[in-house]
Every structure is written in structure tokens, then in C-alpha cells.
Design brief:
The termini are far apart. This protein has 25 helices and 40 strands. Helices cover 30% and strands 23% of the residues. The chain binds flavin-adenine dinucleotide (FAD). The site of flavin-adenine dinucleotide (FAD) has 32 residues, from helix 2, strand 2, helix 3, strand 4 and helix 9.
């Protein structure tokens, strides 16, 4: 059918397409664009601005062009109440203003490269025709991946790409108001949908295949999102996937890989997108290894008359240089513009994408720019990194909250390679500055020197950007040797952990095995530190650790400062602990942050005598304020505190637990946390500890023996005591240390005597023997067989459950030295300690056993 004839037919059916005849008859350039949203609409508008005479035809398969797909979750959630606000530009508007032949409901089904025509199918009328072009632009976007799960095509299972998808999800959510929704995939869309559906008062379960949400980020930077999701009522299933979806009593039943099943009203599949490259592939255009259309830096495909832009193409990473897929709206819009420029012979170049992105997850903003640490590792590119946790604006001005920033840079020249940030305020502004810095090829020294706008409500005289620059420059210049959380989780035999925070901060948690010397006492107490070992110093966020390191270095010690301090360590530990876990949503008006349980809000009246606004304070500020205020009260009176620090829920729960106060309630409140703490019973003067219930008093067990039966007895008691709410410390000394040895051989440097000891002693629980009737190993094998028959947990399982129940395993450092056992040979989670650590726990406890 001729083009004129087509216009006649369509024109009579739909007023929209009848206005402007296609210019195929004219001598002007004929531009056909496939896809009428981000890249396509931008290209069309730019093309018209460059030429008043060109014939521009925009083909869009859907019913709308230029709609705000990024805004769809917010319409579902109710923030953008008026659906029309999402229609950024209508077909009519595009025709009137830009004289573009917009054909909605028209799908491009094939390309004849030889004759330069596009086959078009008018979906409403069924009419098919071909459209000639001089330049063709493909901007068909990316399609949501529908995983191959039985039941994925059932009614009630959705993906979100178009306005039609959005309308269907909204209607389904309205129809099942009180039901649960299950979301598969914790990327940007999955997280935005979790918030949207919670805003609609639905119960939400988010299922994520890997051990973290937001996999574009490094795990420790995404870890605070787990708590945020739980606080806002989202059940998070990490390391799990959906294996089947079935119908169930008018709704759906979802089966997870963990064996769990969830009854729900609707399912959203948001496991990612794949480039919509079929048209290009069928036309024989080059397709890259990631499945996207290959283009050059002018957005030209392997055919010089065909351009491609947006989610459908592979882009060169601006920093790494690798071909990659980065489906984002900003690049799509800019590429559309560049394609139009090149069609009209304006030399315009796309320099690559750097993956700058941000996402709102309830009260937090999280984002990144440039390369992540995992990408740098994958690329084999050398890097260094720092973590900082400054306030979003001057901490004395109301409303400040901490933001966590990770900066990756080249260890030679300091060039910025990537950044990630999370916080409730100011994340976007810092990431934008860093995105520009990366584009401009700046270094961490440039960040240090940047002059950024400042007044107390907006920033600090030392902006977080400057601050990150200072810290990174110190590392680059060798002013301080830094270390990272992984090193502190498993310090080497010649390393010692030093916590330079105040005792109050330590009460809210510290790194296992660390000794505490507050920074202000460090100069006087240097004698307590070993000179032959490297000190791994840390504070809350890294500053006092740095100062401590400077003092230690000046006094001849070897020292490293933990970058980002205990706060970063906790994020690492939380990320590690969360893998393959289900993190249950906190019940309404309560929370269970970091595994610590707040007391249920009971009907009992709480007498709140003081309200503290500690939003500008960073840890330990809020805890110090609490301590100060509670000291003025009598038992049973309460304080209410408002805090911006995201680490506060876990800190205050741990602090209350160790000081005997009662955390009555903690709720997320518009990017902050509001907690009510009831003053507990008076504390024993000597050492702070749980003083409330008898059951929670410490139990201490010295495990001297390495016999199988005695080890079993020790762990059975420890598990029982932990189950009864007791705080249990097991102190392993001499032969008992063998229980904690790893089963496999670990490469460590040992002298001859140490090696001989190592050969002779059993390596781990599997190799222990009965103290009596061992009968050359037969007795031990028999008892293990009987245990299996009677379903008695093995020693390995008992150790595992003790660790999960929070039993503290302390290896006697003196015995380790005597017996030549190195830290690396012990299982994870064991602290090293001296007799003082045993006595400290024994003194407070009411059960002390020697086995
Ligand atoms: P699209 O905008 O998807 O447009 C492609 C169009 O082509 C579609 O309308 C499709 O119907 C049409 N089409 C396809 N094939 C044919 C054919 N054969 N014939 C005719 N028409 C065809 N990015 C961000 O940067 N920030 C965000 O916050 C963000 N949020 C998002 C939220 C959601 C829910 C979604 C779905 C995406 C979001 N994105 C976001 C991604 C962003 O929308 C895309 O990167 C961007 O729209 C890509 O532009 P595009 O032109 O390549 O494709």
C-alpha cells in the first residue's frame, strides 16, 4: 500500500494520525523513528529543531508517546495522584508544536535495509504498510525479563513497563486492598514498587535472588536498605527466588526456593530488563555480547543509515571502557539528541555512560556513579577506597542526618573511579558533584580543594565532598595507613584491634576481640599496647581512629585506621549476616533493628518526662544525650528521642540491653527515628550489664578439655542458657582450643614445635575423641551413630546454633601462643581474649562452669 493511501485510511479512523501527511513524496530527508518515549521523542524534537523541512515520522506501538515511565511507581503509590501528570507530551502536542507525524498503535515489524523501508503494522486496523526512510532511528527500549517460572503468566502476575501495566497493577492493588503483594527482584523498580504498595497499605514480601538488594552497589553500601525495608513493613527474602506461582482461593500462592509459600493478591516480576533488539537482529544489524544493538559514538549502527539509542543499545562505559548495558533515562534522552545531530551532519559524540543513578527507598536515598568495587575487581583495575559518614548539613542546624559515602579512586594518581552514597538527605547533591568530577577526570585532591556552596541549612563549611577528599588524600599521601572491615573481621595473628571510642559507645557494641582505650587516654596508656604487633585502630566513623593512629605512629607503633570506623564495619557485618536470610518486617509501631528486640508497646502508660531532638548528632551523640538525660530521671520514667542516624536503631537496642534500660518503642518517622526509652533498675557499680531479669545474667563456661563428650556437654549447656535469655561466654583454653579449630589445614607460618603440636592435636569437632571408652576411635564412632539415630544434634551443629544464639566464643590468647595455634586456624566468629575477659563476664554472672 502506498504511504498516501495509508494516511487516508488511518486518517479516517483516527483523527490523531490524519493531520500531517508523510513527506515521502517530498525531496526532504525522511526520518523514521521507532519508539516514542525517552530516546525516540527526544530525537524527534531535536530533529525538528535542526530542520523545519525534514519529514519526521514517529512510530509508537503503545497508546502514548513521551510518558514518564520513571513516575509510574509513584502513581501506583499515590504520590502522583493525577495520571495525566505522567503524560509529559501528547501525540497532539507533538504534532502541533513540532510538526511530527506521530503514529501511535503502530508497530515497526521489519526493516528492508536494501530499499530503506520499514514495515509497519497498524495494530488497531490490522493494516500493514511500508515506510521509506533516509535515516532510521531505533529507540525501542528494553523489555522486562519474565523469568521461566511455572505460573508466571497467571492473571495477577505483572511486570511494569507501560502505562497499561501501571493501570493494571493499580487496579489489582485496589481490588485486593488488604492482601499481600510479592515482588521478585530488589533492583530500582522492585524497591520503588515495594514502597508504592506499602503506601497503598498492602503487605509486601520482596524476594531477591542474591544476598543483597540493589546489586549495582557494593553489598555493605546496600546493607542499610535491609533495615529500612523491615522498618517500613517489608519482609525481605534474600538469597531466595520464586520457584512456582499457583492459584489459591481467588488469589495466588507463591512458592519460594527456601520451601516457604506465601499467599498473596498480586505478584510483580522486576528481575531486570533486556534490550528489545529483535527488529535490529532480524535486519542483520550487529548485536553485542550483552544482547544490545552495537553503535558507534555517533549512535550509528552497523548500517550507516540506521541509528539506535536508549535501553536497546550497548554503551561504552565511560571509565572502564567495556561494552555494557545501562538502561537509564538520562543517557537515552541525550543519545536521541546526538543521533539527530548526526543525521543532520552535526558532529556530535556520545562519550559513554557512567551509570549515575539514584533511588528512593522509603526514608533513604541510595545511589552511585562510576564503577563499583565489584566492577573494579572484575576488571582487574587497581583501586583504593575510603568511607566517610558526615552530616548532610551543619549538625547544629535542625534536620541534619548522616550520609554514608564510599569513594573509589586510583591508588597512583588519585583519579576518582566511583562513588556510592546512602542517607536521608543530601545524597543526590553529593553524587551529582562526584558524577561531574568523574566526567572531568578529577582526582581526590580536587575534591579536597572544591569550593561548594555553604550555609547551615544546606551544607557544612567542610562539605561531605571536601571531607571525602581530605580522607582520600591522606591515604594517597601515606599520612595514614588505612584498613577495611574485612581485615578487622579476621585480624592476622600479629594484629591487635583497638577501639578508641568512649566506654558509652562501646556499650552499644564493638568489634569482637577489640580492646578499648579512649582516644583522650591513649597517650597515657601506650604501655598497654604490644609494640611487636600492628594496631588496627577504629572509632565510630574514622576520625578519632585517624587521630589515634597519628599518636601511635609518632610513638613508634605500626598502626592502621579502619576507614569509616565501626559504622562501616557494622554495614559489612550486616551485609554478611543478611545473605540468604529472611528479614521480617517490623510489626507496626515496633521494630527489631539489627536483631535486637524492642519491648512491645504495651498498654502500660509510659511517663515521658523529656523529649530530646538529637537529629543533628552523630553517634555517640544521641547515646550520650540519652545517658545524660536518663541519669536525671527515676526508674520507670521515660525519655523520647528523635535521631537522624540510621545506625541508631541497632545502637540504642544494644545499649539498652547492656545497660538495663528498656527500649519501649522505636519508629521510623519521616527520615528519622523516634524512640522511647524507659529508665531501668539501678546498675551494679562495677560493670554495666543487663540488670533486669535474673535469667539474662551472664553464664560463663571455661572449656579446658578437648574431649568430645565434654565439648558436647559444654555446648548443650551453653545453648540451653542462651535459650533462657542468658548472655553466655565460653572461654576456651589449652586442649579446649582444639574444638574451635577449622577442619581443614590452614596455611600459616609455624616453627617446628608449633608444627608438631599441630600434627598431634585434633583439628576441629569432627576429630575429637571420647574421654573414656574411645576404643581406638570405635567408641566415638558408635556414640555418634547413636546420636544420629536419636536425632541429637552433632557437635558441629551445636557450635553453629550457639553462634547463632549469640554465645560469645573467646579463645585464650595465652594458650594459643603456648600451643602454637594461630587465629587463622580457628573458625569464624571467635574472639581472642585474656583472662580479664573471662573474669569480667564471670564476675557479673551467676553460673560459672569449668569443663
Ligand atoms: P522507552 O522509553 O522504554 O521507549 C521505548 C518505546 O518503544 C516503548 O514505548 C515501546 O512501546 C516502543 N516500541 C518498542 N518496539 C517498538 C516497535 N517495534 N515499534 C513501535 N514502537 C516500539 N531511569 C532512570 O534513569 N531513572 C529512573 O528513576 C527510572 N525509573 C524507571 C521506572 C520504571 C517503572 C521503568 C519501567 C523505567 C525506569 N527508568 C528509569 C528507565 C527509563 O525509563 C529508561 O531507561 C528509558 O525510558 C529508556 O528510553 P528508551 O527510549 O530507550 O525506551
Amino acid at each position: 500500500m502506498s504511504q498516501e493511501k495509508h494516511n487516508e485510511i488511518v486518517g479516517s479512523d483516527t483523527a490523531e494520525t490524519a493531520v500531517v501527511p508523510n513527506k515521502s513524496v517530498s525531496q526532504e530527508r525522511r526520518i523514521v523513528i521507532v519508539g516514542g518515549v525517552a530516546g525516540g521523542a527526544s530525537c524527534a524534537a531535536r530533529a525538528r529543531r535542526l530542520s523545519e523541512t525534514a519529514s519526521i515520522t514517529l512510530l509508537e506501538r503503545g497508546r502514548h508517546i513521551s510518558f514518564a515511565n520513571c513516575g509510574m511507581p509513584y502513581h501506583i503509590g499515590g504520590q502522583i495522584a493525577d495520571r495525566r501528570r505522567l503524560l509529559v507530551q501528547t501525540s497532539e502536542g507533538m504534532r502541533t508544536r513540532f510538526r511530527i507525524d506521530v503514529r501511535i498503535g503502530c508497530e515497526a515489524t521489519g526493516i528492508d535495509r536494501q530499499n530503506r523501508t520499514v514495515a509497519v503494522h497498524d495494530l488497531a486496523s490490522g493494516v500493514q504498510y511500508s515506510l521509506p526512510y533516509d535515516a532510521l532511528v531505533l529507540s525501542p527500549g528494553a523489555e522486562p525479563i519474565r523469568p521461566d517460572i511455572p505460573g508466571a503468566d497467571l492473571p495477577g502476575v505483572f511486570t511494569l513497563r507501560s502505562l497499561a501495566d501501571m493501570d493494571a497493577i493499580k487496579a489489582a492493588a485496589e481490588a485486593c486492598k488488604s492482601a499481600r503483594a510479592v515482588i521478585l527482584g530488589g533492583g530500582y523498580i522492585g524497591l520503588e514498587m515495594a514502597e508504592a504498595l506499602r503506601d497503598r497499605q498492602m503487605e509486601v514480601s520482596l524476594v531477591q535472588h542474591s544476598g543483597q538488594v540493589m546489586t549495582a552497589l557494593d553489598a555493605e553500601m546496600a546493607a542499610p536498605l535491609n533495615r529500612e525495608l523491615a522498618l517500613h513493613g517489608v519482609d525481605l527474602h534474600l538469597g531466595a527466588t520464586i520457584t512456582a506461582i499457583g492459584q489459591h482461593e481467588g488469589g495466588l500462592r507463591v512458592t519460594l526456593s527456601t520451601g516457604e509459600s506465601i499467599v498473596c493478591g498480586l505478584v510483580i516480576l522486576s528481575v531486570g530488563v533486556r534490550p528489545e533488539a529483535k527488529l535490529a537482529r532480524d535486519a542483520g544489524l550487529a548485536i553485542g555480547s550483552r544482547g544490545g544493538i552495537v553503535v558507534d559514538d555517533h549512535m550509528r549502527t552497523s548500517d550507516e543509515a540506521i541509528f539506535a539509542v536508549g535501553d536497546a543499545i550497548e554503551v561504552k562505559h565511560f571509565l572502564g571502557g567495556q561494552q555494557t548495558l545501562l538502561p537509564l533515562a538520562g543517557p537515552a534522552n541525550r543519545q536521541g539528541r546526538i543521533a539527530a545531530d548526526n543525521i543532520f551532519d552535526r558532529p556530535s559524540v556520545y562519550h559513554g555512560s557512567q551509570g549515575t543513578a539514584i533511588c528512593k527507598v522509603f526514608g533513604l536515598a541510595v545511589g552511585l556513579t562510576g564503577l563499583s568495587e565489584k566492577e573494579l575487581r572484575r576488571l582487574g583495575r587497581p583501586y583504593d577506597k575510603v568511607y566517610v559518614h558526615p552530616a548532610s548539613h551543619a549538625s547544629y542546624y535542625p534536620g541534619a542526618s548522616p550520609l554514608s559515602l564510599k569513594l573509589l579512586f586510583d591508588p597512583q594518581d588519585g583519579k576518582i573511579l566511583g562513588a556510592q552514597a546512602i542517607g536521608s538527605e543530601g545524597v543526590d547533591k553529593r553524587l551529582d558533584v562526584l558524577a561531574v568530577a568523574i566526567r572531568a577526570g578529577l582526582t581526590v585532591r580536587d575534591l579536597r580543594d572544591m569550593e561548594l556552596c555553604y550555609a547551615p541549612p544546606y551544607g557544612s563549611a567542610k562539605d561531605p565532598i571536601n571531607y571525602a577528599g581530605f580522607v582520600a588524600t591522606n591515604v594517597l599521601d601515606g599520612d595514614v595507613a588505612s584498613c577495611h572491615a574485612q581485615a578487622c573481621m579476621k585480624p592476622a595473628g600479629d594484629q591487635v584491634l583497638l577501639d578508641v571510642r568512649t566506654p558509652e559507645e562501646v556499650e552499644a557494641g564493638t568489634i569482637p576481640g577489640a580492646r578499648n582505650i579512649p582516644l583522650d587516654q591513649l597517650r597515657e596508656r601506650l604501655g598497654e599496647l604490644p609494640r611487636d604487633k600492628e594496631i588496627l585502630a577504629f572509632c565510630q566513623v574514622g576520625l578519632r581512629g585517624y587521630l589515634g593512629c597519628r599518636i601511635l605512629k609518632a610513638n613508634g607503633f605500626r598502626c592502621r585506621n579502619l576507614s569509616g570506623g565501626y559504622k562501616t564495619y557494622k554495614d559489612f557485618a550486616a551485609a554478611e549476616a543478611a545473605k540468604n536470610q529472611t528479614i521480617k518486617a517490623a510489626p507496626a509501631n515496633e521494630t527489631t533493628p539489627g536483631g535486637c528486640t524492642a519491648q512491645p508497646a504495651s498498654a502500660e502508660k509510659v511517663c515521658v518526662t523529656r523529649e530530646i531532638d538529637a537529629r543533628g548528632l552523630q553517634c555517640p551523640g544521641p547515646i550520650m544525650r540519652l545517658k545524660e538525660e536518663l541519669a536525671k530521671l527515676t526508674d520507670g520514667q521515660a525519655v523520647r528521642i528523635l535521631v537522624g542516624d540510621n545506625g541508631f536503631p541497632a545502637d540504642v537496642a544494644a545499649w539498652c540491653h547492656s545497660t538495663g534500660h528498656q527500649l519501649r518503642e522505636i519508629v521510623a518517622d519521616g527520615g528519622h527515628f523516634r524512640a522511647t526509652i524507659v529508665k531501668g533498675q539501678a546498675q551494679p557499680a562495677a560493670a554495666p550489664g543487663p540488670a533486669s531479669a535474673e535469667a539474662s545474667r551472664p553464664t560463663s563456661i571455661v572449656v579446658f578439655s578437648g574431649d568430645f563428650d565434654k565439648a558436647m556437654a559444654a555446648f548443650i549447656i551453653a545453648n540451653g542458657a542462651a535459650a533462657m535469655g542468658s548472655e553466655v561466654t565460653m572461654f576456651f583454653t589449652f586442649w579446649g582450643l582444639n574444638i574451635l579449630r577449622k577442619g581443614q589445614k590452614v596455611q600459616v607460618r609455624k616453627n617446628l614445635v608449633e608444627r608438631m603440636f599441630g600434627w598431634m592435636m585434633p583439628r576441629g569437632p569432627e576429630h575429637l575423641k571420647l574421654s573414656k571408652m574411645n576404643l581406638a576411635g570405635c567408641g566415638t564412632a558408635m556414640i555418634k551413630g547413636i546420636m544420629r539415630k536419636k536425632n541429637v544434634a552433632s557437635l558441629g551443629e551445636l557450635i553453629q546454633s550457639a553462634r547463632q544464639a549469640g554465645v560469645k566464643l573467646v579463645a585464650c590468647s595465652m594458650s594459643m601462643g603456648l600451643m602454637g595455634i594461630h587465629r587463622e586456624e580457628l573458625i569464624d566468629g571467635v574472639e581472642e581474649g585474656g583472662v580479664a575477659s573471662y573474669l569480667g563476664s564471670a564476675e557479673r554472672g551467676n553460673v560459672n562452669l569449668f569443663i
